[in-house]
Design a protein that fits this description.
36% of the residues lie in helices and 15% in strands. It has 352 residues and is α/β, with parallel strands linked by helices. Helix 8 links the parallel strand 5 (146-150) and strand 6.
Length: 352
């Protein structure tokens, strides 16, 4: 028997999530992972590195709760938002029995986490308006334990319709959890669903410090939910999920000064994004510019493959989504520094 044969059947058949770093590439301008262009400076106190860290660092939890407008008992810190997704699946879904629901095209980790844990996937594609098909989702609620919605959606950038979400939440009472992934919500905070947490026990929200806070490298995310859900997740999470250096940096990022730095970064990104969208929309090489609510924009080009190759030849690494259903010729561009956006436009304006 081979080593591979010893692995679970689901793992043998699994295709790992193709993260930006796994895909790689050769270039000097990296605009393929929705990372911030900077992180800011942080200090580190090494005096406690000999001790195991708190499972849930009190200062991080308290500060994030204040920032998000929820109670501390409604917050769980984890190793990025991805661990929050995985914890929900491991906590609420029986392997080989239960299913989650997603609305493609969307963030790939919902399906990967389900497959890794032997959990089924019900896919209800976005409708023609790129909204979740709420009627179809409600019809299938009895088949699933978790419904994953991404708002702004990665990669399309669309926001979940509040009226449709409310219909779904009312239908989901005592039937399933509705998870709204708000990884990019800082770029459009007025569209957060966090205010609904106290009204709907079935609502769960995923957040992260990876995007607007510029801290993808420390892997720190948050799950916001009612205390009963948080208590169940705490039964499953690893004993020491937040390393001491991560907790220190996260607490600084969530201080008054850190929040001001984050807001300045968001304002700059949104300005650069608006300029890029305007110029893309005027380009004869562009067929469609998708909703631009995050720190990225998805663009359908006339000839996506050729444009992607031209950018790569110039050392600009973007994210190709043309293989995804309904996204032919689509490329996602992360909003970087001014010089990086200028480089993208320079290539776009060159002769084909």
């Amino acid at each position: 028997m081979s080593i591979t044969a010893l692995a679970r059947a689901q793992v043998q058949a699994l295709t790992p999530y193709q993260s930006a770093r796994r895909i790689g590439g050769q270039g000097h301008i990296w605009l393929n992972a929705n990372e911030a262009a900077d992180s800011g400076d942080y200090s580190l106190d090494c005096a406690r590195l000999n001790r195991y860290p708190e499972c849930q660092p009190p200062m991080v939890i308290t500060r994030y709760a204040a920032y998000a407008g929820v109670a501390p008992e409604q917050v769980l810190a984890s190793r990025g938002g991805d661990e929050g997704i995985e914890l929900l699946i491991r906590t609420f879904c029986e392997p080989g029995k239960d299913q989650i629901l997603q609305c493609s095209p969307t963030y790939g980790m919902y399906a990967i986490s389900a497959e890794t844990n032997g959990v089924g996937i019900v896919d209800v594609p976005l409708n023609a308006d790129r909204q979740p098909d709420f009627d179809a989702i409600i019809e299938r609620l009895d088949e699933v334990k978790l419904v994953f919605l991404c708002s702004p959606n990665n990669p399309t950038g669309d926001l979940v319709d509040r009226a449709g979400l409310l219909r779904l939440l009312n239908a989901a009472r005592n039937r399933a959890l509705v998870v709204v992934d708000e990884a990019y919500i800082e770029f459009c905070p007025e569209h957060s669903q966090a205010e609904l947490l106290n009204e709907y026990a079935e609502l769960v929200i995923i957040r992260t410090l990876s995007k607007a806070f510029g801290l993808a490298g420390i892997r720190c995310g948050f799950t916001l939910a009612n205390p009963e859900v948080i208590g169940l997740l705490l039964k499953v999470i690893a004993p020491y999920p937040i390393p001491e250096p991560v907790a220190q940096i996260a607490a600084q990022a969530l201080s008054e000064e850190g929040l001001a730095r984050m807001q300045a970064r968001v304002d700059d990104i949104n300005r650069l994004k608006a300029e890029l969208v305007s110029k893309l929309a005027a380009s004869s090489q562009v067929r469609e510019v998708y909703a631009a609510n995050g720190n990225y924009v998805l663009v359908r080009f006339i000839e996506g493959a050729k444009l992607f190759a031209r950018m790569a030849a110039a050392g600009i690494i973007l994210r190709d989504f043309s293989s995804k259903p309904g996204l032919s010729d689509c490329i996602r561009i992360t909003i970087g520094r001014q010089a990086e956006m200028d480089a993208v436009l320079d290539v776009l304006q060159q002769e084909q």
